[in-house]
């Protein structure tokens, strides 16, 4: 009961962060990215407090006994942290960096930690979000962003191909990555057909 209460509070905070970040998909949202990321990071302060509280609700050595309770919300929080870091620097957040943002451990031996499969699931949710962002970037007239997203997602896909995924839900999610790659490829192809990728390349010359 106690665990459930904290998990519900975490889910609420995750929804608030998601609502905030969803704003980047709107036309004017691109100008506001730094402000939205800063606000999201403030919300992660609440997440850290809630996770601190969660740690006190069960014996430290029984993490996996209760893991199912918070597994889903933790994956969402990984995705949200990864999305913030991507929007800020267009890089993939490491598991250690996510653990730091969430105020938990990266190592299993040190108590309440970020399970590797939860981290990977969160990263795969990010891929779907970026596929959506690639489409919406074109609508907003930002033609270079889909090219950068395409490079990032292809590198991500190559990384996942090296893994031997035994977890069923993770495998299913990884299957979805193929569709994300395809969706982004279609956006990039469409830009090249319309000659807009050249324009994007020229525009991107002076910026990241």
TrEMBL record:
Gene Ontology MF term list: endonuclease activity; hydrolase activity; metal ion binding; RNA binding; sequence-specific DNA binding; single-stranded DNA binding
Family recorded in the similarity comment: Belongs to the translin family.
Keyword Nucleus included in the entry's annotation: yes
Naturally occurring in which organism (per UniProt): Aptenodytes patagonicus (King penguin)
Pfam family for this entry, one: Translin
Localization of this protein: Cytoplasm; Nucleus
Function recorded in the entry: DNA-binding protein that specifically recognizes consensus sequences at the breakpoint junctions in chromosomal translocations, mostly involving immunoglobulin (Ig)/T-cell receptor gene segments. Seems to recognize single-stranded DNA ends generated by staggered breaks occurring at recombination hot spots. Exhibits both single-stranded and double-stranded endoribonuclease activity. May act as an activator of RNA-induced silencing complex (RISC) by facilitating endonucleolytic cleavage of the siRNA passenger strand.
Top-level division of the source organism's lineage: Eukaryota
Binding site for Mg(2+): 129
Oxidoreductase in keyword set: no
Main location: cytoplasm
Gene Ontology biological process: RNA metabolic process
Keywords assigned by UniProt, alphabetized: Cytoplasm, DNA-binding, Endonuclease, Hydrolase, Magnesium, Metal-binding, Nuclease, Nucleus, RNA-binding
PANTHER family: TRANSLIN AND TRANSLIN ASSOCIATED PROTEIN X
Name used for this protein in its record: Translin
Assembly and interaction partners: Ring-shaped heterooctamer of six TSN and two TSNAX subunits, DNA/RNA binding occurs inside the ring.
GO cellular component, as recorded: cytoplasm; nucleus
